[in-house]
Design goal:
The chain has seven helices and five strands, in the order αααβαβαββαβα. It has 154 residues and is of the alpha/beta class. The longest helix is centred in the N-terminal third of the chain and has 11 residues.
């Protein structure tokens, strides 16, 4: 049994169907980076909420291009509010967040973020993205630098 299976079985939090549970089991099995994409009403926000609850106790940053998209994310994410920050990409670029480090970065509609803006977001804080294989690695301080390697400047 892996970490996600244990969480699904023993947590008070419920994932609403088996297909979503399977997606969660596979999402970070080979990488610390995942993309959730699809047309409207295909449960992207629901999966983000499930992930946010799985990574309940880590600092998470949620970015979107528009204020209305930020409000929508905030409304849909039910995870521990003490560990969640929601803001527009522009606001984060200009003012930063409350933390200098985050464990989890979610960018809504990331295809609308320019490369220049994405680089500024990545430079503004340090992202200790969680180890893809196991959530328990967080308690031992093991981190993956995959995002930083992927976006490293030449």
């Amino acid at each position: 049994m892996n970490e996600v299976d244990s969480w699904l079985m023993f947590s008070d939090y419920e994932v609403d169907d088996d297909e979503k549970a399977d997606i969660l089991r596979q999402m970070f099995s080979k990488s610390a980076v995942a993309a959730i994409y699809g047309s409207a009403c295909v449960v992207k926000s629901t999966l983000i909420n499930h992930l946010s609850n799985y990574y309940y106790d880590v600092k998470k940053l949620y970015l979107a291009q528009t204020h209305s998209a930020v409000v929508n994310l905030r409304r849909r994410v039910t995870a521990n509010a003490d560990h969640c920050e929601f803001m527009t990409v522009e606001s984060f670029k200009n003012h930063g967040g409350n933390y200098s480090e985050y464990e989890f970065l979610i960018i809504d509609e990331s295809n609308t973020v320019s490369n220049k803006d994405m680089n500024e977001v990545l430079d503004k804080a340090h992202y200790n993205l969680t180890e893809p294989k196991t959530r328990s690695s967080l308690s031992y301080g093991r981190k993956s630098g995959l995002w930083m390697k992927r976006y490293k400047r030449q």
